[in-house]
Amino acid sequence: MAPTAASPAASLTVIALNCTLKPSGKPSSTDRLLEQVLVELKGQGVMPEGGVVRVADLDIKPGVTSDEGEGDDWPALRRRILDADILLIGTPIWLGQPSSVCKRVLERMDAFLDETDGQSRMPSFGKVAAVCVVGNEDGAHHVHAELYQALNDVGFTLPAVAGTYWVGEAMQGTDYKDLDETPEAVAATNAMLARHAAHLARLLKGKGYPGAPE
């Protein structure tokens, strides 16, 4: 029997956005955590859409539309986000908040609210989102809460255990990228996130959300 769209054999894709403030070529703890989750997703049959996107390399203009004019790199990135089944967004913690780069991405997705189809569905409906957070001090739960609300508000669906994170001891300088081994709790959460995100994405790909009555 041929596999259905929601079966484990159904092909799924993920795009991973690294919202570090650092451009490519500079080591990033966020990169390390994103790559670990991508490995787990690949084990669930989810293929990455290229490598991790270092958003700081792009010229994402300020604004809340899907195209802010000449030189704006958002339209191309937007297409890649909406072509993928899963959006994996990673951010460091800065001043207890998601990075400014991460906030810029969320601000640009605000346009989805006005881009509904004839049945009031945003273009992100049926897409799954998950979050990776790293930092050198407390704040991961707060950052997750901000991202969960924003991503859901612009139409993404979050699975149970939609986020993974690592934070170091306060007032010290060890980064996640400098650890010799991945902490067991982080590895277990990475795997759980991947299982749940892939499962939910397959369900939504097999049968999306109903639209509003016309």
TrEMBL record:
Signal peptide: none annotated. Transmembrane segments: none annotated. It comes from Azospirillum picis. Residues 14-168 form the NADPH-dependent FMN reductase-like domain. This is Multimeric flavodoxin WrbA. InterPro entries: Flavoprotein-like_sf, FMN_Rdtase-like_dom.
